[in-house]
Structure formats: C-alpha cells, structure tokens
C-alpha cells in the first residue's frame, strides 16, 4: 500500500490587497470537538480566539466528530467542508486525527494513506493545510501506537511541505497534562488545562507563519 504521488493541480493563493476573506475549517474527532472541557472551549476555540487579526475577515468552523478515524474523515471532509468554503477567497484546513486509529488498530500504512489523500486532495483544490498530531492518552498501549503514528504523520507532512505540530512528545509525561487526564470527567480526554496546553503548542509552532499574520 503506497502513498500517491503528490501532484497538486492548483495553487494556494493569499490575497495581498485589502482584508483577507478566510474560511478556516478544523477537521478531526473528539479532541477537536473539545470533549471533556468544562468551559466548552477545547483547543480549537482557544486558538481561534488568538487568531483574530485586523488583516483577516475570519470565519472558523469546527467539524470534530467524536469517534472518527482517518477513514471517516476521508469519507466526509469534502462534502462537509465545501459549504463552509463556498464563495470564500482563502480556504484553509486544519487536520487533527489519530487517537481513534491507534485505539481501533488501523494499520500504519492505511493511516498514512488516508492522511496523505486528504492533504493531497486539498492541495489539488488550492486549500492550505496544517496538521496537529494527537496528544498522548493515559493508556500505555495506545501511547506506544501513537508514538509510531505521530512520527509517520510528521513524515507525511514533511514530504508535502505541510506544517505539522507534534503534541504527543511534549505532553507525554508532562505533569499538568497527566493530572488533567486523571481528573477529567471523560476517560482519555483532558480538561480545561490540558486543552490550553494543546492550544499553546499550536500557537507557538508555526501557526502565525502559516496564516501569514503577526501574533496579537
């Protein structure tokens, strides 16, 4: 099972005149949806809150679906994203997925291929992409699988020049992350503090460069 050859047929363009009309879609599973955060923000809302900028007319959409695997994302992302991008001059996609693949035993080759297909199809449609890795869980066996999976995600992104944020390595063994998982009302999900840590990692690892704006 080999990854497709990366041959995008469209160019991602950023307007240099006036305020940029940006539609920003977040695609993933429960961690994108913010499950377990008592404040109801998750990391996505925190990141969006720090992305408001006078140069951007920004509309953000959270398409996180609890339980989704990369196969589920591959099957639904085009139909669900298209209405959000309709009529917008700048289309951007943030993908964060993997925990359910690891828990469900999805093969590494299949995981790589699913992610590669999403990124390549987006590039071919002139959509800018950004990938955020899954964070560690409190399950040792799942973490062993995630360790390999996250490395593969980084490789898939590197081959395509797609920005990639590793949330797994910095949070594995992180005291505040572990305590937040232990105290959470939802198994294997963080609470407010944990989602704040993920948001910090995203914002400080290429986010503003990707959007071509200065931090606010």
Briefly say what this structure is.
With 216 residues, the chain is of the alpha/beta class.
Count of discrete structural domains: 1
The overall pLDDT average reads 94
Q: Detail the poorly predicted runs.
A: none
Total strands:
5
Query: What share of the residues does DSSP label as strand, in percent?
Result: 5-15%
CATH superfamily: SGNH hydrolase
Major beta sheet summary: 5 strands, parallel
CATH architecture: 3-Layer(aba) Sandwich
Distance between the termini: 44 Å
**Rg over C-alpha atoms, rounded to the nearest angstrom:** 17 Å
Q: At the third CATH level, what is the topology name? A: Rossmann fold
Order of helices and strands: EHHEHEHHEHEHHHH
Side by side, the strands of the main sheet go 2-1-3-4-5
Output the CATH class name.
Answer: Alpha Beta
Task: Provide an overview of this structure.
The protein has 216 residues and is α/β, with parallel strands linked by helices. It has one domain (20-211): 3-Layer(aba) Sandwich (Rossmann fold), CATH 3.40.50. Helices cover 47% and strands 15% of the residues. It is built from ten helices and five strands, in the order βααβαβααβαβαααα. A five-stranded parallel beta sheet has the order 2-1-3-4-5. Strand 4, helix 6 and strand 5 (164-165) form a beta-alpha-beta unit. Helix 3 runs parallel beside helix 5 and helix 8 (175-183) packs antiparallel against helix 9. The chain is globular. The N and C termini lie far apart (44 Å).
